[in-house]
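hiii, so i know i said id send this last week but things got crazy w the move. better late than never?? heres the sequnce for the chain we talked about at the cafe, plus the structure i predicted for it. fair warning i was half asleep when i ran it
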Amino acid sequence: MPTRTARTAWNGGLNDGSGQVELSSSGVGTFDVSFPKRAAEDAGGTTSPEELIAAAHTSCYAMQLSALVAEAGGTPIALQVSADVTLAPDPAGGFHLTGILLTVRGEVAGLDAAGFAAAAEAAKETCPISKALTGVPITLDAALD
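okay and structure toks below
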């Protein structure tokens, strides 16, 4: 399996600086980042590490769930996955991720709600990004459409 690469160029301090994240392996984009916008409700056209984690988690989870639905005898037709990644002050200093809420709605042939829920939970536990984030509580809201 290949190694994927991203890089960030940062200028200035935490509160007055800014940077750009480049998705180097794919070349699909460069995105602005700044701490004040990271900590604000309105991201103002910038991304954040938390949004990038959410993107990585939803895409990984969707792939894993589609595989597990098929292993369980179902046919995945459509999966809509979102992730809410929460950043908060860390009592030990700095910041930390306090939780991730994965929400999935699926259109699946050949599995009932219980079968889909079991596959969804197994995907949460076995997708590589979930495994990498074991220090963060991950909750799941899964249902068939």
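btw The two ends are 34 Å apart (CA to CA). thought thatd interest u
miss u guys!!
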